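writing this on my phone so excuse typos. first protein, seq and then structure
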Amino acid sequence: MQTDSPNALSRAKGSRPEMSHPDSVEAERWRMAAELVDGFDDGLNICHEALDRHVENGHGDQVALRWLGKSGETRDLTYADMRALAARFANVLAAHGLQPGDAVFGLMGRVPELYAGALGTLKAGMVFTPLFSAFGPEPIRTRMEIGSANALITTASIYKRKIAAWRNELDSLKLVLILGDEAPEGCVALGPALDAAAPDFDTVHTAPEDPALIHFTSGTTGKPKGAVHVHNAVLYHAFSGRHALDLTPGTIYWCTADPGWVTGTSYGIIAPLVNRVTMIVDEAEFDLDRWYGTIQRERVEVWYSAPTAIRMMMRTGAEAARPYDFSSLRFLASVGEPLNPEAVTWSAKVFGKPFHDNWWQTETGGIMIANQPGMEVRPGSMGKPMPGIEAGIIERAEDGTLTELGEGQVGELALRPGWPSMMRAYLHEQARYDKCFVDGWYLSGDLAMRDADGYFWFVGRADDLIKTSGHLIGPFEVESALIEHEAVAEAGVIGVPDETAGEVVKAYVTLNPGHEPSAELERALRGHARKALGPAVAPREIVFRETLPKTRSGKIMRRLLKARELGLPEGDISTLETDES
């Protein structure tokens, strides 16, 4: 990879702190993982491990991706097909002057071109960033600005509605590829470009520590964080896919997560393909009969989904599942938010197998704690640390020192750094990255406890992040969008419990002079937020207040808003300056 090229990823790589463990220790620790990939004599590339080597080893005729269209159409792409399509993508990018290290963003629904585009980007030695297609214009622009996007793969509809108005203000953006045979002015139609490109491309021999993926995650304050992951992460994608999800060659596997989120990339693209499974990709959103029918018709063996979807299934009752045959299922897993014990028990009765909860984060890049195949499932527990992962429950004293807690004690969930898929940087935010690592621990920000048998139990989040339907939302981003409306003076955003989504976003706002609270204004503000942020991020409810609780430094106390909303103890309010009237 060209580390001296003037792009954002090269700069991020140059500023990244060195890994804390020597290469010999890492090689020994992840020997089992290394046996699942081939690599090059002089490097490692995710696309080579996911596609190229399987074709070279005689498995090109196996179906890699079975696509189920919204309207009932299907499309099978073999490993040879996917390799050729990824090569065409790489050639298109190179033909438009993009270089190894450049940043390519993907913004579209679950269509084969998105998956091939991600792999083609990696094949060309470039860095891929997936974005959720339901994002509004502002979240998209913010992330593309932080990531200094050089190219974007999207649809004409998304481009016209969410990007065209500001596209020319983003100087780094040189190429916009539009799905289909036609494109708006200034963009390139992807269909003809792929048809004209050669189906062969020599995979770039990237080094293990070269950036490969950027996944954005929101914070409680400030802009979204761009977590940098490297090609060496494929070791852990392969290992955890095999040992946490039971992905073996030939497995029929369905991950319902969208590639716009880290689960849909790590375990919806990379881990399954590296382990040579046949992936089911459904373009449509959740529909109970469609999902049950897909499992039966496609003979799905391993199913990875989200607690929100499981709760939606539970609401329809076991009766709705009775007409379907689930005998093909051998392993069910869930991630995104804690899986309640009732869901584990219910799934065991309905599907004949329980859902196995697991825990990880955007920053970890892969599953850290899991109810692995063959383990006793304790409903409500996220399981035990994966082999090679050392986890602890940590208490942080006022002076910053850390103490590891014993069984049954609640503290911050922490991990010993050094696994291959660990993030290597936050883009342009060295200090923010450094704060994650203290005294030989990676601090997750989540609260948990460990029982006497080594099972870990999720307790809550140590900050204000909101998890709704598996989506992680930063309050600051929502507040900023609300304040852009002329009527809003201040805004405070929290998550409140919801039976189906886990949490939903609720906003408290104060108004500027000349504006009065009304049902009409509340609807207008929600509409404004939906337009700016997308329905997945916008608040479900907005409450008007005369004032909001703030610290003396002017920071709105979301913790206090949430405590009052839920009737919880308010805790220390010594820093409170103003309060609600």
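second protein below, same order as before
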Amino acid sequence: MYGFFSRLLAVDLSGGVEVVRVSDDVLTKFVGGAGLGIYLLYKDVEPGISWDDPRNEIIIGVGPLNGTIVGGTGTFSVVTKGPMTNGAVSTQANGFLGAYLKLSGFDGLIIRGRASNWVYLIIYNDEVRIMDASHLRGKDTWETEDLIKEELSRRFGFSKGSISVFSIGPAGENLVRFAALVGDHGHVASKGGVGAVFGVKRLKAIAVVKGDYKIPIANERELREAANELFNAVMADNPGQYSRWGVAVGMVNYARAGLLPVRNYQTSVFPIDWAERLSGQYMRTHFEHRVKTCWACRIAHNRYMRVTEGPYKGFEGEEPDYEGMAAFGPQIYQSDAGAAVMLNNLADRLGMDLNEASWVVGFLIEAYERGLISEDLLGDLRPRWGDPEFVRRVLTMIANREGIGNLLAEGVKRAAERIGGEALNIGIYTLKGNSPRSHDHRARWLELIDTAISDTSTHFLYTTDMPALLKNLGIKFNPFSPDDVVNVLVKYGGFGQFEDSLVICKFNSYSYYQPLLKAVNAVTGWSLTLDDTLIIGKRIVNLFRAFNIRHGVDPRLERPSPRYGSTPIDGPAAGIGIMEHWDYIIRRIREGLGWDVESGKPLPETLKRFGLDFVIKDLWG
């Protein structure tokens, strides 16, 4: 098939390596990335296998666009069974690894078993090595990457620039439930605790050397045209601003719209002058920076930064995106951009999801203020808002499971459950156990609903660029209308799963589906339409759902915590609450998607419609 090698690399960490063929039918139905990942996970990981069982698998998936001239196609998808919900996880990271793995002749990597000692993988074309990683124990993700590149350069003569390394830090080694996989100096597969699954397997890192395979492309000329059209389209839209000012360009607009997470949702108001000091515009006009790009990316929205003022003057690291600035700005209620840069990079280097990290810190501060946590449990810690040094210390304690960090390493939901009482009412989490991204979703119902019903531990029917997709399609909707929310999620839910199966950076596609599909069709020789992508996406959505129901994730838990679903008391959305509509919205979404309204299970006719006949007997007997 054009765009594919029809080969998967399967590595058993006890020592076995094999190349597995994947059929044309599977690739056509599931494409790659997230879609191929959940197909393999569903087939291989049986119910009863928990996230920390060595029989659990990790699938690193790539797609037909990876390694081509299309911008942002060094991205890859990680699919596994994760610790936040004990259900499926799908999360993506940009950088180079997705391109390098594809250029080694593989459409994906399956990781099985558990090593007897700490190891890391090297992949170069058809050559795979399982290397000792005992000397990397305790190293942070940037240190690990640098040491592995130095070792591979010295021992095997590889150019450091031709190596992509993704690793876990102390958080993953210590099985922090929201541990992440971090590589290429700051790109993060952050959601669902995938880093903890690596830790269970004693897999410290994956190093992929840029391979020598040539990707079979159906029409090179059309691909060049499509790549240019896609680039020009996104540069004329928001990503053009991202290129100039970074992804944190929208901090002020978000503050005005009541979308920033402020002091653990105690308020929806954040001072505009504070938001200005945390914006991309501020950082790029006050701090030194240089361009950092991913595979084939011409948007170049990333930067390396050197803080040039304030208490963290001289600190160097990657420029945070919006979620990072929101997590370590308004959520912990501080406005120093240098501090936010420092804390973002600390979370990355320790190897944890900065969203959940900031939620547990905010939870801790408020719980302490309300007298819900004893000083004996805190030791000499005295939590308070607006103190970056306190946050720095707590993040390090979490990563090493020291003191109260051991409790917080379980995530907000489990920490609240262990404390009990009022603590359950102040945490930001879903009853399934996953957590939201760093927004105030009470003013963004699409994302609040999607996070609560998600079967991937993150975006599910919704996608980062769904507002852009609706705009590109000329669709207007009321963000506080239950019917509009239902109609959007039911009709267009799945497009994001299709993108995550290609696999491509959202900032390089931005839901400009026409040039994107032109690129996909040029590579594969297919003739996909938008309707086709929604069918593929919903097929993937239904298989994620079937996996979770089969593995005991209870659809009755598709609700937000009391604070997460609360009605804002101030800001633009003051007095507008979603919970009075919740049951109606859930029921209508299930009806619209062809799921049983009581159990949440995809109906047999729905599974059959999407070519998932093999699932019917598992769910319905």
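The radius of gyration is 23 Å. thats all i got for now
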